[in-house]
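Instructor's aside before we start: the two examples that follow are unrelated to each other. I chose them only because their records fit on one page, so don't look for a connection. First example below.
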Amino acid sequence: MKAAILIGGKGKRMGALAADRPKPLIEVAGRSIIDWQVDWLKSNGITDVVLLMGQNSDKVVEHAKRVSNWGINVEFVQEIERADTGGAVKCAERNLKDEKHFYIINGDTLNNMKIKKMKPGKYTVVMALSNEKSPYGVVKSHGSKIIQFLEKPILKNIWVNAGCFVATPELFDFLPERGNISETAWPKLVELGKMGCKKFKGSYWRDIGTPKDVEMATDDIKTGALKF
């Protein structure tokens, strides 16, 4: 089973944390993001990882070649210039086209979703969804009286793209040579009824986009929230 990881992000919002390393090598609780991701993928039965490399991915490649305990086959695919997410996945067509289905993962998320439960079925793409956590305290009131206060609760009826999907090779027919996958392939697949979803209620998920996210994810790991 194969999974491809998009590792070309520049980490512009990471500030000093990304000054000397690309985003996937930023450490969370003493380990790089990509190390956490590989462990998670292995727990889901993934045996081969394809790293989709951007223009600043050399250090990630060096790290992958240096890490001997990953225990997984690693392939490297260099994106074309200005590929964006859609073009990056398109560049991996040769590596993935012979698979019955495969997974694509954003290189800046941490989660423990059981993605091995996701299968395309009748769809070309099935996207993993996660409950979003409110960034603010939520107040319930009756007239002028507060009757309940919830500190940053999980928004049970709001689902977000978890940065992971499973797809069949038909996906490559919808991908641009260059372009954002959300703006190109997704609208076409939705229009044709070829895109489904899998909701992961209660699973851990966090986007690692800022130093604050790194801090919160580190706290989460220390308290045992991220378990595979």
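Example two begins here.
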Amino acid sequence: MHKFRNRYGRWGLVAGAAEGLGAAFSEVLARWGMNVIMVDVDIEKMQKTASWLEEKFGTEIVKMQADLSKMENIDAIIETINNKGCRLLIYNAAYGPVKGFMENTSEELNYYLDLNSRMPVHLIHQFLKDMPVDQASGILLMSSLAGLWGTQLVVPYGATKAFDFNLAEGLYYEFKHRDTDVMACCAGATDTPNYRSTNPRKNLLGPTVLSPRYVAEKALRNLGRRPLYIPGFMNQLTYFLLTRLFSRSFSTRLMNRTMARMYEY
């Protein structure tokens, strides 16, 4: 997609790129003729995805094995970004198991904060600090519909995703004058390995499950148009109904009832 490449350059970085949505973002960028810096802790899965992209699209891939919950890895990531002249940052990495709040250990609670919130805010800060003011750039943060209402069984995850959404929304307005596009993609249920591993119960009132490729492509196509994007017509309709027609208390009860049914809680 020439317009996208002309605006953001030849390189894009995907944090959390080995599988699922991260692999889908990498695929869309490669299909649009961009080179990709893939960052993930799982080197085997990342290598498999990267090899497929290189073979299918002939794109150049830089693979960086890094634990994105560790702040000391930021310098190496930023160095690679600067060396490649990368002006597009996609932060997809997240930790989000489905379980009761008290089932989390203290270490896990820190992991939610480090991976889902602390790393993106520091990485984005450094990314913007080093970005030439005369060049357009883009930042896409993966948030979640779970961050828009307090939802049982994903309490720490939802709280960190609310942080990500507010981070993107504020930056969208603050950096428009610098020609920097910032957006949070608030996805609903997406057919990723992580989502399937939660074993959600199928029912008529459950969410529509979207493909990772659909979510990634729609999100990238909407970058620069708005601070928040929700992929999928049914997700958009649900968001409209729950925020415009119903009270927050009713909407929150409905979301929590749906969650309880999905996981028989």
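The mean pLDDT is 94.
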